[in-house]
Amino acid sequence: MSAQESANAVKAARSVLDAHFDALNAGNEAALGATLHFPHYRLASGHLQTWPDPDGYLADFRARASDDWHHSQLERCEVVAASPDKVHLDVTFTRCREDGSAIGRYRSLWVITRLEGRWAAHLRSSFAA
């Protein structure tokens, strides 16, 4: 893979991650679903959760986030590996209350892939509940 191919893949993956957090914080279910490939997979707390489609994804998130959750803030994003069609990102984010105080800080691994020409998150392994 050329340096340009790697840079393009990382740029696309980072755009997906940023769009995901923006859509999540806006409560925009359609935009949030557009940042994910379906079926979408999430491994957390020893459980693999699968969403066959975007229906209910945002509601599922709200059910597992704290009742005090207002927004999530991306703290860190490091590239673990990249190919022309897949990028692994080591991500740290904070779930916050409306006043900006932290509910919790979590680390997760995001696998963002290009399928049929579209970049989106395919799976995540998270330490968040």
Could you please describe the fold and organization of this structure?
The chain is built from three helices and six strands, in the order H-H-E-E-H-E-E-E-E. It is an alpha+beta fold and 129 residues long. Strands 2-1-6-5-4-3 form a six-stranded mixed beta sheet. A hairpin with a 2-residue loop joins strand 1 (36-44) and strand 2 (47-51). The protein is globular and about 45 Å long. The mean pLDDT is 94.
What's the short version?
With 129 residues, this protein is α+β, with helices and mostly antiparallel strands. Helix content is 29%, strand content 47%.
Strand and helix layout:
Elements: H1 3-26, H2 29-33, E1 36-44, E2 47-51, H3 57-64, E3 71-83, E4 86-96, E5 102-115, E6 118-126
Parallel strand pairs: 1-6
Antiparallel strand pairs: 1-2, 3-4, 4-5, 5-6
What descriptive keywords fit this protein?
single chain, globular, Nuclear Transport Factor 2, Chain: A, 3 helices, 6-stranded mixed β-sheet, 129 residues
Q: What topology, given as strand order, has the largest sheet?
A: 2-1-6-5-4-3
Q: How many alpha or pi helices?
A: 3
Instruction: Work out the number of β strands.
Output: 6
Report the C-alpha radius of gyration, rounded.
Answer: 14 Å
Terminal CA distance reads 36 Å
Return the CATH class: Alpha Beta
At CATH level 3, the topology is: Nuclear Transport Factor 2, Chain: A
Largest sheet report:
6 strands, mixed
Strand content: over 45%
Shape: globular
Q: What level of helicity do the residues show?
A: 25-40%
Tally the structural domains: 1
H-E order: HHEEHEEEE
What is the arithmetic mean of pLDDT? 94
Low-confidence stretches: none
Task: Tell me what the CATH architecture is.
Answer: Roll
Secondary-structure-based class equals alpha+beta
